[in-house]
Amino acid sequence: MNLERGFVGRRPASVDGDGVDTEAPDRRRLVIILVIVAVLVAGALAVMLKSRGGAPEAPPAALPHITVLVPGRQAVTTSIATTGVIAAKRDMPVGVAGEGGLVRRVLVDAGDWVKAGQVLAIVDRQVQVQQTAQMSAQVASAKADARLAQIDLERSQKLVANGFVTQATIDQKTATRDAANARVKLAEAQLGEMSARLGRLDIRAPTSGLVLARMVEPGQIVMPSSGALFRIAMDGQLEMQARLAEGDLARLHVGSPAVVTPVGDSKGFKGEIWQMAPVIDSTSRQGTARIAVSYDPALRPGGFASAVVTGAAGVAPMLPESAVMSDQTGNFVFLVGSDDRVERRAVTVGDVNDKGVTITKGLSGDERVVESAGAFLNPGDRVLPVTKPAARAADTAR
Questions:
Q1: Is the pTM of this model over 0.70?
Q2: Within 13 Å, how many C-alpha atoms sit on residue 303's CB side?
Q3: Labelling 161: which of 135, 147, 207, 275 has CA 20 to 30 A away?
Q4: What sign results for the dihedral spanned by CA atoms 196, 199, 202, 203?
């Protein structure tokens, strides 16, 4: 009892006679001072971090794991898909070479194969035959006159020694003989001309090949102004006239292989570019690449076809499409440097196909390229790179 009273009755030394704690202001001042010191220390740390370039690096366990691949360099080709029209490589129109006339017979039809010089159509020649006979008779008459003049000259030359014929007579008879021989040559030339005209009445194939079109029928009167009566594909050679953008034309060359597939057929026909357009259409910005193909019944001139042309082979890095990004400045990739920090690299993209994206400029092939997480990274970020095995990286590209 006395103990409790003694304990209750004791007053702390910091309490005055009125019951007020005299040490409370000191404690509050101490708390305020500690708070101010903590704020100053935090500010100093913030200034130090800012001057050093950012927040303290996260421990390795907190860094993001990023898959990277080393693309290397591999053989790549340029494959360009295009469309165009099938046509004869050399489409030769055949018309009337002579004076023409009434067509008696037409001996070939579209789709037939012909040889050089083969008669395609026969034109009536009754008048020309009679004229040729007349010329032959004139040649025979001129030759007879020439023989007679020669005999007369020889007889006179024998009489000169006896004084029965003067030298002037000999000269006159020699001139008569020479004129007769000249008339023979003239008649023969006229006969040759008439024979040539007679031969040109027949419409003949100028070259071997495939008859593409026939535009003449028996009973039709033809003349040089009638235009083409037949169209022949020389040697049956065909081509596809492919329309290509000027950028694609720059990636191809004469000899580039191609596979041509006509509309309505799944079979492809091998060919190659034999001629490149020397000019570009100023409106469409396109040019023509002429792809030579061998004849096949499925390839019909005038028909539509598609083609895949393979450009020049080369060696370049190839990446999966997920590794290549683009913005208003162009195409780029993210690399991971030797210090495991991310850096941006501008690249030039070449061919894009099912195998991946060919990089024509910007990479040497031995860099560590971020495979697919580029959208979540910024240049300067530190990461933990996980290198993808070369075989798997190639599988991804495929």
A1: no
A2: 17
A3: 147
A4: negative
